[in-house]
Each structure stands twice: as C-alpha cells, then as structure tokens.
Write a structure and sequence with these properties.
The protein has six helices and 13 strands. The protein is of the alpha/beta class.
Length: 269
Amino acid sequence: MTDKKYTAGRINCVLVTGGVWHDIDFARLELLKLLAEDDRIRVRVFEDYENIDAINNADMLISYTCNVVPSLTAQEVLYKWVADGGRWYALHGTNSIIRLMNTGLYGTPDWAPLFVETLGSMFRSHPPIAPYTVSVANPDHPLVEGITPFESTDELYLMKTYGKLNVLLDAEYGGKAEGFEENEWEHARHPVLYTHEVGKGEVLYLTLGHCRHHYDMQPLLDYWPTVEKCAWDLPVFYTLLRRGIKWTIEPFDDITRQAQAQAKQSAEQ
C-alpha cells in the first residue's frame, strides 16, 4: 500500500468499536485519545464493518468489538484489504461470535469463516476473570522489545487458531471454562499477542483489554455491580496499544512524514 498518495501526509484510519457486554464507550474514547497523539491520523468511527467504502479507502484499521459479525461482503472486503498490504490491529473480542445455545451454555458457531481466518483466530471460551501471568514468547520482536512478564487480571482467551501465527506474548492455562460449550481445556500456552500474515498484509491481534461498565450487560442484567477495567489499568497495556498503532502505519510512516513536512513548508511560503 506504499504506492498511495498521502495528501499532505494525511493518514486515514477506520476505527470499528461496537458490540455487547463491554464498555465500548470507554474503549472507543481511549483509542481515540491514543490515535490523536499523531496529528497525521484522521479517524472515521463505525459500530460495524459494513461501510465498505471507508474500509477500502483506509490506510489503517483498528477494531475493538464483541459479537460484531461482518456480512459476507464485508468479510471479503476485509480479507482483500489486508491481503493487498493493509495492517489491521484487532483487539480483545474482535474474533468473537458468541451465542446462547439450547443447552443453556454459550457456543461459538462457525458463521464467519473468512473473517476469523483473516484474523488468525476465533474466540471459543475463557475461564473466570482472574490474575494470570503474560509471558514474552518472542523477545526479539520490536513490538515486545523491553517488555518483561507481567500479571494481568483479565479474560484469558482460549481460541481456535488458523494458519501460521507469530506469537509474541502468551499465557499458560489448562482447566475449566464454565458457562461455555467448550469448557474443558488441556494444559497449554495460549496466544495473547500475535501477528498473522495474510497475502501482502498482516493482522496484529491482542486479546487483552476486557472492560465493562454498570450498564453493559443489559438486557441480560439491568445493573452490573462492578466497573471492570482489567488490562486497561496497566501501563504496559498502553505501551502495547501505542506500539500497535505505530506498527499499522510503519510501511508508510516515512512517506507521510515527508509529505506533511513538504505541505507545511509550502503553506508557510
């Protein structure tokens, strides 16, 4: 995607934040504040993936969603956008397709295979929120350089994965995930942060980042008793967010800086 013309250095971002059971307002605001740290980035915000024109014209894509399932057309557009060289930073529940089944348990039907194959993973279940250790699986990668193992009280995602993943952070777990159809998990290491190549492009996925406000379980519950911020309370989480944003624009960072500098110079003459 480096052959595009970046007018005066402008970078067009699509931010998709929507869904259920999470404090989407909080996550949206925090991500917008981080994006605003770079004055080249201009953001369009959507609740789903159905604005095809916006995605096609985006230079970078960031998502924080839960149970937002793209239409087949949108899945095809997302796949092509990444395969053509785009970089998508997908957060937390982006890979979730969760439904309450007739068994009374939550299942994860395979309703959007192209979507989850593009992402490289699909959420299946998680144990109750509790502290766990996040380890550095690939310390030589720039995205995790200098990061040491840390403890996070968050949802530990147990996932089905697709294709080759470059796992950068992971966590160890084996045991029950009560309330889900896939509720027994063998002891293993589970990806927390990974990259996944798709054609000429790449997806960066970070599973951390659960958050919930008092009203986010409606209509299941009128009032959730606690406010949950989980990894959002950790400075290292914001380090990962900032590095991920920088990663999305890395292929055209220099080009856009030069274009911005030239535009400033021309405007001052």
